[in-house]
Design a protein that fits this description.
By secondary structure, the chain is an all-alpha fold. Among the domains are: about 180 residues, Helix Hairpins; about 70 residues, no CATH class. It is about 95% helix and about 0% strand. Helix 2 runs antiparallel to helix 3. The longest helix is centred in the middle third of the chain and has 126 residues. It starts with a helix and ends with a helix. The relative contact order is 0.08.
């Protein structure tokens, strides 16, 4: 058992060790809190990046679809512009042909204009109320103009081709203009989406910087956590050893105290027994001492009885296993070397099945001791 000074020294060391370990655990918890905080920041940035990139992929699909549409529209516009160029070239050729033919036939006036004038005069005769004289004059004018047209029949055919070609060119240009507007609108939409993608990717770059910084901080605090945890592990055995010393000392102290109490009670019991022999009157304290002594003896006897019973049971079990093992060995021997058992083997087997004298004596002693305890 420790002396007072030794006990004080151990208690001081144990108290200091517990305080140091408590301080280390507090630091460890603080480091862990900081470590987990940076890990959550890293995960938050990572999740935001994943969400943004998912949106970027969708936006890129939209942009690529619009870009494809713009490309198709441009190809269509190019085809139309090519057709327009061909028709314009043909139109210029017809205009030159018309001019050459007019000069050759010495035709004055514009056949188109003459045709329009004839059509206007005929419409006037059909729709307006005019006198017979006026109608005759108009018919005369129409006749003269048609005569001019007959002279310029070739020109009229050329003019007709020019008119049809001009109409085709106008239609193609209108269509090309509509396609151009569609290209402009679609390209504008694609540009808006493209700028949105650029903005999102810029945000991703910023978040990646945050994620990288958060990971660095997390890794640093994790490193500190591991180092501090190793320090804690290295200090625990020393504290546990000191705690074990204090526990052992406490057990020894309790045992010593119990032994002192037992001696005191035995001394008091002897005094009570002496009083009983001399026929003296017992006090309440004497009765209590006597009662306590009997209770302790009963408890001790019950404990001894239980231990004896357990030992007997264990010995019986071991004996049973030994017999079974011997029988197994004999069976195996009989299988390998078949022969008739001789007289000595039979006697040995008979001895194994009987209880040994020593065991019977022990059993009788246990029974006698049990009866004595019960008495």
């Amino acid at each position: 058992m420790l002396s007072k000074q030794e006990k004080k020294d151990v208690q001081d060391k144990l108290s200091n060790a517990r305080k140091e370990i408590s301080d280390i655990r507090k630091i460890l918890n603080d480091i862990n809190t900081e470590k987990e905080s940076w890990y959550e920041k890293k995960e938050k940035a990572h999740n935001e990046i994943s969400t943004i990139l998912s949106g970027v992929r969708e936006k890129k699909k939209e942009r690529d679809s619009l870009t494809k549409k713009v490309k198709e529209l441009k190809n269509e516009r190019t085809t139309l512009n090519s057709q327009i160029s061909e028709k314009v070239k043909k139109l210029n050729e017809l205009k030159n042909k018309k001019s050459t033919t007019s000069t050759k036939l010495n035709i004055k006036g514009n056949p188109d204009k003459i045709i329009k004038e004839v059509e206007a005069l005929e419409l006037k005769i059909e729709t307006e109320v005019i006198s017979f004289e006026q109608e005759k004059k108009l018919m005369k004018v129409i006749k003269e103009k048609k005569k001019q047209l007959d002279q310029s029949k070739d020109i009229i055919d050329i003019v007709k081709d020019i008119r049809e070609l001009s109409k085709d060119i106008r239609d193609l240009r209108k269509k090309a203009e509509l396609i151009h507007k569609s290209i402009k609108q679609t390209a504008g939409e694609s540009q808006v989406i493209h700028e949105d993608i650029i903005s999102r990717l810029k945000k991703v770059d910023e978040l990646r910087e945050k994620e990288e910084e958060a990971y660095k901080q997390f890794f640093e605090f994790k490193k500190q956590f591991v180092e501090k945890n190793e320090e804690l592990k290295s200090r625990l055995p020393s504290m546990n050893e000191l705690s074990q010393i204090m526990k052992e000392d406490k057990k020894e102290h309790i045992a010593e105290k119990q032994e002192t109490e037992r001696k005191t009670i035995n001394q008091l019991k002897e005094e009570v027994d002496d009083k009983i022999k001399k026929g003296k009157v017992l006090t309440t304290e004497d009765l209590l001492v006597y009662q306590r002594t009997n209770m302790e003896n009963d408890a001790k006897n019950m404990k001894d009885k239980a231990e004896a019973s357990e030992k007997k049971k264990k010995d019986s079990t071991d004996e049973k296993f030994d017999k079974e093992d011997k029988k197994k060995v004999k069976k195996e021997a009989k299988k390998t070397v078949p022969k008739k058992p001789d007289k000595e083997d039979k006697e040995k087997d008979n001895e194994d099945t009987k209880s040994s004298p020593t065991e019977e004596i022990t059993s009788e002693k246990d029974t006698a001791r049990t009866k004595k305890v019960e008495e």
